[in-house]
Specification:
- Pfam families: Phage_GPL (PF05926).
- This protein has 150 residues and is mainly α.
- The chain has one domain.
- The protein is built from 6 helices and 4 strands; from the N terminus they run E-E-H-H-H-E-E-H-H-H.
- The strands form 2 sheets. A two-stranded antiparallel sheet has the order 1-2. A two-stranded antiparallel sheet has the order 3-4.
């Protein structure tokens, strides 16, 4: 029955500002186990929010690389897995964590299955926020924890 919901992964690609690379909606849906019952537009909006917020958070990092003549994060030397280097992977990790954090409330409203009943929304959100923060700190060259004299 047609109900307006997608029944398969979207092949749509989100274009970013160009420096950090593209974001595959299907990759996000698969890697973060996003239920297909969540409307595609909500998934897309969560990813757009995450991409835009990270572009703001990482503007200084991007500017530093561009000052060194690096116009795209994929131009960095180093090990690559499936053509993706470590900074690109960290960027995706932060985007995906923030986007899933935005979508978590939908998980609980869409399904009353036992799987979702035992989930703790606040704890999962904190975990996803921490995951994104750690990826961003690493991209900024910061350690797990730091102290600054004010």
């Amino acid at each position: 029955m047609f109900n307006g919901r997608q029944t398969e992964l979207s092949e749509e690609i989100l274009q970013t500002d160009g420096f950090w690379g593209e974001i595959s909606i299907a990759e996000f849906q698969k890697s973060r186990a996003i239920p297909l019952q969540i409307p595609f537009e909500l998934v897309k909006e969560a990813l757009i929010y995450a991409v835009l917020s990270l572009e703001i958070d990482l503007k200084e990092v991007e500017d530093n690389y561009k000052a060194q003549g690096i116009q795209h994060i994929s131009d960095l030397n180093g090990s690559k897995v499936n053509g993706i280097n470590y900074p690109q992977q960290l960027y995706k990790k932060a985007v995906f964590a923030r986007a899933k954090n935005e979508l978590l409330p939908e998980f609980f409203t869409l399904s009353a299955r036992e799987l979702h009943e035992k989930r703790d929304l606040v704890s999962e959100q904190k975990s996803l926020q921490a995951e994104a923060v750690m990826a961003i700190r690493t991209l900024k060259g910061k350690t797990r924890g730091s102290v600054a004299l004010v």
